[in-house]
Amino acid sequence: MAQHGHSLEEDLQTMLHTAAGRRQSLRWLLAGAASLPMLGCGGSSDSAASTTGTGTTGTTTTGTTSTGTTAPGTTSTGSGSTTASGSCTVIPEETGGPYPADGTNSNGSGVVNVLAQSGVVRSDIRASFGGMSGTAAGVPLTIKLHIVNANNSCAAADGFAVYLWHCDRDGNYSLYSSGVTNQNYLRGVQEADGNGDITFTTIFPGCYAGRMPHVHFEVYPTLARASSAANRIKTSQFAFPADVCNQVYATAGYSASVRNLAQISFATDNIFSDGYTLQLATVTGNATDGYVATLTVAVVA
Questions:
Q1: Is residue 281 within 8 Å of residue 294, measured between CB atoms?
Q2: Phi (first) and psi of residue 120, to 5 degrees
Q3: Quick one: DSSP state of residue 166?
């Protein structure tokens, strides 16, 4: 795979140039050297990521908390999380990374903000929009997020909105990475329905050097307020079970991800090394028909 200008070292350098990035980087440093990424045995995970595979008929996680709930008095293993009302645990706050395209940074040509562009509110995020053309190829993935309000007894957060983005199967981020700066695919905004549910149609992201495969997202109190990053109430990331990633990366187009996944694990990932129970999606499906990833996201609003 060609260099995409976003190895972990380069990501850290990029984030150190922003206030939010500096704060996140300091958190990693204070957490100790064990939380910093290093080359490790590939694709392994702790007991929270154990899965049961069913070959081509589907894979589901076991031993995980996909609902974001905990027993009263317990705390999350994820970083920056808090427990509200003793009934559900808020998903950890994480960095948005160097490629948010939400108006908080530049891509070499100036500040880039897809939130202000017509067409960004959409469920299917595989194609570029707003005058850009091109569609991201890869194994089909449906992402289903259930948003709940920890300040309202974990009731469904209907009317909330989510901006979601991730890399393509080559590990490239649209609008930033070499070769795809003229694309804005794999980015979109959706409003939660009356049950607090949001669905995105996309492709399974690749694994680039230094990070476990992941998806970024920001939560907003309303769709109208999702036009400005200043209004976000939560920024976080979620991951996929390692065995599902291995299944996907055995298919055509993901060859570079096989090598990259072999050099990283949840224990050495700089975001998930301090806990990821609340950030591990439950995944079903297969590489032929596609996968469905579900995650309950508790926020404070």
A1: yes
A2: -70, -25
A3: -
What SS3 string covers 223-290?
A: CHHHHCHHHCCEEEEEECCHHHHHHHHCCCCCHHHHHHHCCCCCCCCCCCCCCCHHHECEEEEECCCE
CB distance 210 to 265 below 8 Å: no
The pTM of the whole model exceeds 0.90:
no
Is the Cβ–Cβ distance between 149 and 201 less than 8 Å?
no
Query: Over the stretch 234-288, which tens digit does the pLDDT of each residue have?
Result: 999 999 999 999 999 999 999 999 999 999 999 999 999 999 999 999 999 999 9
Give CA 137 to chain center in angstroms: 18
- Distances 85 to 17, 73, 82, 153 between C-alpha atoms, Å: 37, 9, 10, 7
Q: What is the pLDDT of residues 207-240, one digit of tens each?
A: 999 999 999 999 999 999 999 999 999 999 999 9
CA distances from 155 to 92, 218, 223 (A): 18, 19, 18
